Amino acid sequence: MGPMIFRRIVIGFITLWVVSVIVFFGLSILPGDAAAIQLGQAATEESLAALRAQLGLDRPAYIRYFTWLGGMATGDMGISNAGGATIASLIDFRLIKTLELGGIVAVISVPLSIFLGLAAAMYPGTWLDRILTFGTMSLVAVPEFLIATFLVLIFAVKLQWMPSIAYMSGGESLWEWLHALAMPILTLVIVVSAQMIRMTRAGILNVMNSPYIEMAILKGVARKRIILRHALFNAIGPIINVIALNLAYLVSGVVIVETIFAYSGLAKLMIDGVQTRDFPLVQACAMIFCGTYVLLLLTADIGAILSNPRLRKPK
Fold first, then answer.
1. Which pTM value belongs to this model?
2. Which of 115, 118, 121, 308 is most buried (CB neighbours < 10 A)?
3. Is 54 or 282 the better-scoring residue by pLDDT?
4. CB of 207 within 8 A of CB of 235?
C-alpha cells in the first residue's frame, strides 16, 4: 500500500506543477499589467517602463516563472505588485476567513448528507426517497451562481430575512456573524450536500445487495438494524471517498460564492487581484486552492485504498 500512496503523492506534486505553469502563463497573456493599472491611461511610456522595471515585469516570462516557482517552493510568496506588501500578509487574514466559511459548511453538510442518505436508503421507493432523489438530482444540475441568485431573490429581496452581502466589520456578536454568513453558508451547503446525499444512498443500497445482507433479511432482521449495524460500516469507505471529493469540489464553489456575496475571503482577494493585474497575488491564491484540492483528492484516494483491499493489489 505504501508504494501506491507514494505514487499518488508524486502525481499530486506533478499536478501542482502543471497548474503552476497554466496559471502563470495563462495570466501572462491577459491584456494589461500592474504598471498600466496603477499609472492609468495618461501614463507615459517612460513611466511605464520605469515601473515595470521596478516590479520586474520587464524580465522574460520564463525567468519570472522560475523565480516565482523557487520562491513558492521555499515558502516565499513574493511581494504584491499592487501595494508593495508581502503576499503572505495579505493572504493571512483572508485565508482564515475562507477556512471559517468552508469549515462551517463541512460541519453542517457532512452529517446532514449522511443522515438524509441513510433515511432515503432505509425507505427506498417511498415518498421520502422519491423527494430526496428528485431534489438532489435537480440541485446537482444547477450551478452555484444560480442557486445563490435564487436564494438572494427569495430570502433577501422578497422575505428580507437575510442580507444579500456578507459584510462584517469585525465587532459582530455570534448571532450577527451567523446572520451575515447565512446566505453563503446556505448556498454551499445545498451545493455540496446534494451529491453526498445521492452517493450515500447509492453506497448503502449497493451494500444491501450483498449475500450476507440478504441472509440477514431472510432471518427477519429489521432493515433499520441491518443498515445501521452492518451495511453502514461496509459502505463507510466509499462514503468517506465521496465526502472528500465533494469537499474538494467545495474549493471551487467558494470562489463563486465569495464573489457573489462580497465575502472578504481568499477567493474574493484573488478576484480583486485579477482586476488589478496583481499576478503574484493571483498565482499564490490559485496555488493554495489547487493544493487544497489535491490534498482532498489524495485523502479520498487513501480512504478508498484503506477501505477496499482489492485496490491494494498491484496491477
1. 0.79
2. 121
3. 282
4. yes
